[in-house]
């Protein structure tokens, strides 16, 4: 099948290590090959910058700017692409512009006009795997929570705004509890905000979990083991059980009110969607992912992300996604690597991969487009 979402043109200006960079593309997977430091990951990050949020490195706007000379400050940067979605061509650009106070302002344009982030997100859905995620299942809960929220964000771009509003209310409530003497009315108001936005966050998470579980169950047995996913949060569990949103909000607000003294003593809120963890088990072995071998953990992660892009493409409210795989092939055996490439060729969205050696991508044959990156330029190979 032909990819339903792919980039036909990508141009970078003053982005990370790239002063000027351009790729002209077809809809096949894209392999970026070169030594460490050639700027391969920087290109993937630039693609991720076309979507909403902070990109695959979680970097600030200033961090993505190309380093300037000793006597000048970094300028802004620009990423421009021509994207093809279901046969329709769109131009999409994002830029970080310097502001008079020395900071940066993000601007986005879609088809020649200024566009809000949510509108751009409806076109440019993304999923990715990076080396930093290799120990995701054995690491802290916050890493898994952020990973799952990114999956949820691709289904529902409004998820990011709800999560940010919840975090703001959470911080303000804790500040008042730490200071002491806050009026009940102020705390009531903040806890009401937390309950509304927290329930919205939990609802999208529960919906995402259901979609992923269905896609994983439908996948045939193969090179990437099936995962059993679960969320530990009580709000997410209540939505999964079919509880009404209003009831979940009221119950959460009541529990926040009852827990004020406890949270004041602890210095943090001890319950809420900010403490939810993603539980992952190897289905065939009935074993926690964290107890699996490093290779099995990588295969489980790739299986989840492959299911994610398939579920997005099948969701009427979402759509196909670009998949970014940074150094993902290097740690797979030849059989899994070939199976991965077969799935990417047949995927609903264009895949982008990086590696230090062209040999890693031999199993693609002519089914992928390959570029060697050196000295800020890309040559087709």
Write the layout of secondary structure elements.
Blueprint: E1 5-15, E2 18-24, E3 30-33, H1 40-49, E4 77-85, E5 88-98, E6 104-110, E7 113-114, H2 117-123, E8 125-129, H3 141-155, H4 158-179, H5 184-218, E9 227-231, H6 234-240, H7 245-258, H8 260-266, E10 278-282, E11 287-288, H9 294-314, E12 321-325, H10 334-345, E13 351-355, E14 369-374, E15 377-380
Parallel strand pairs: 3-13, 3-14, 8-12, 12-13
Antiparallel strand pairs: 1-2, 1-4, 4-5, 5-6, 6-7, 9-10, 10-11, 14-15
Helix pairs in contact: 3-5, 4-5, 5-6, 5-7, 5-9
Put the structure in a nutshell:
This protein has helices at 40-49, 117-123, 141-155, 158-179, 184-218, 234-240, 245-258, 260-266, 294-314, 334-345; strands spanning 5-15, 18-24, 30-33, 77-85, 88-98, 104-110, 113-114, 125-129, 227-231, 278-282, 287-288, 321-325, 351-355, 369-374, 377-380.
């Amino acid at each position: 099948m032909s990819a339903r979402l792919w980039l036909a043109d990508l141009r970078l200006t003053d982005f990370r290590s790239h002063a000027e960079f351009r790729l002209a593309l077809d809809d096949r997977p894209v392999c970026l090959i070169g030594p460490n430091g050639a700027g391969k990951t920087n290109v993937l990050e630039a693609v991720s910058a076309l979507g909403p949020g902070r990109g695959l490195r979680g970097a600030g706007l200033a961090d993505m700017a190309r380093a300037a000379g000793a006597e000048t400050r970094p300028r802004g940067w620009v990423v421009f692409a021509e994207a093809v979605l279901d046969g329709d061509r769109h131009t999409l650009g994002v830029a970080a512009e310097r502001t008079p106070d020395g900071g940066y302002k993000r601007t986005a344009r879609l088809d020649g006009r200024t566009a809000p982030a949510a509108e751009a997100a409806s076109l440019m859905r993304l999923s990715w795997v990076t080396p930093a995620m290799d120990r995701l299942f054995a690491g802290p809960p916050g890493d898994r929570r952020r990973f799952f929220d990114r999956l949820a964000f691709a289904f529902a771009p409004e998820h990011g705004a709800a999560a940010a509003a919840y975090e703001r209310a959470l911080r303000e409530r804790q500040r008042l509890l730490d200071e002491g003497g806050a009026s009940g009315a102020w705390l009531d108001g903040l806890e009401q905000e937390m309950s509304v936005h927290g329930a919205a966050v939990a609802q999208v998470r529960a919906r995402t979990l259901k979609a992923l579980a269905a896609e994983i169950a439908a996948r045939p047995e193969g090179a990437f083991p099936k995962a059993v996913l679960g969320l530990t949060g009580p709000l997410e569990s209540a939505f999964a059980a079919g509880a009404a949103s209003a009831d979940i909000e009221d119950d959460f607000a009541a529990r926040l009110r009852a827990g004020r003294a406890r949270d004041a003593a602890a210095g943090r809120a001890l319950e809420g969607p900010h403490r939810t963890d993603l539980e992952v088990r190897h289905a065939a072995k009935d074993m926690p992912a964290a107890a699996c071998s490093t290779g099995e953990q990588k295969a489980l992660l790739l299986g989840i992300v492959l299911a994610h892009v398939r579920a997005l493409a099948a969701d009427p409210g979402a759509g196909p996604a670009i998949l970014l795989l940074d150094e993902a092939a290097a740690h797979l055996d030849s059989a899994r690597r070939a199976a991965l490439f077969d799935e990417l060729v047949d995927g609903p969205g264009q895949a982008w991969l990086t590696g230090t050696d062209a040999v890693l991508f031999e199993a693609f044959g002519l089914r992928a487009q390959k570029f060697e990156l050196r000295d800020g330029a890309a040559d087709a190979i």
